[in-house]
Amino acid sequence: MLPLSVEVDYSSVPSLTAALQNNDVVIATLPVDTPIGSQDTLIDAAVAASVSRFFPAEFGTDTDNEKCMKLPHSFFDWGLEAGFLAHPKTHTATIYDDGNLPWSTTILATVSKAVASLMSHLEETKNRHVYIHDAVVTQNKIIEIAKRIDDKDWELTYVDSAAVLEEAQVEYRKADSDCKKGLMPLLHISVLGKGYGGDFSGHLDNELLRIKLMSDKELGEMIAKYL
């Protein structure tokens, strides 16, 4: 068994291969700002080390969607805490289009539970995407729930998702790209943009992995934590 941490060179297949020896599963949790292609080295090392199952760092949005696979991803509780989905503390939000686009959302704890459950369902889930969610929400629903909790008005700014995407792609391609102008808007589009497969309702694996859906009460309790 490996110790809790091993120093490796993530640009070196031999270094990673040595670290992954005698392991059956690799779960990649690379940060969202990791350079494109960095995961390839880890995949090559997992193959070289005869790892039987590799979980890529593609948690969040639907990477089987042709449009979405080119963009980064996010989580519900992180999105509230970091002000990604809205700014609960200041009661402000940037609303994409009309704010009524439904999308599947999942907290980090549920993602962890699902990954652990996958270890008991390796055959049923091999070589395919796995879909779970805690709930389906919209930006407007989040704000409506927040208003019911503390009865405060929100300051809302409306933007066009197509225009945001175009501007963000130009910024993201720059060598000295500004994260707030390039990466973060792309994150928003991957969740809140039309046509990115954000609602998983039609093909969920919740039942297989024993992931229960979040009730409206539980959703409200989660949002209340960040107000």
From TrEMBL:
This is NmrA-like domain-containing protein. Residues 8-77 form the NmrA-like domain. SUPFAM superfamilies: NAD(P)-binding Rossmann-fold domains. The lineage of its organism: Eukaryota, Fungi, Dikarya, Ascomycota, Pezizomycotina. Transmembrane segments: none annotated. One of its GO terms (molecular function) is oxidoreductase activity. It comes from Trichoderma harzianum (Hypocrea lixii). Gene3D superfamilies: NAD(P)-binding Rossmann-like Domain (3.40.50.720). InterPro entries: NAD(P)-bd_dom_sf (IPR036291), NmrA-like (IPR008030), NmrA/Isoflavone_reductase-like (IPR051609). Coiled coil: none annotated. The keyword Oxidoreductase applies. Keywords: NADP, Oxidoreductase. The keyword Oxidoreductase applies.
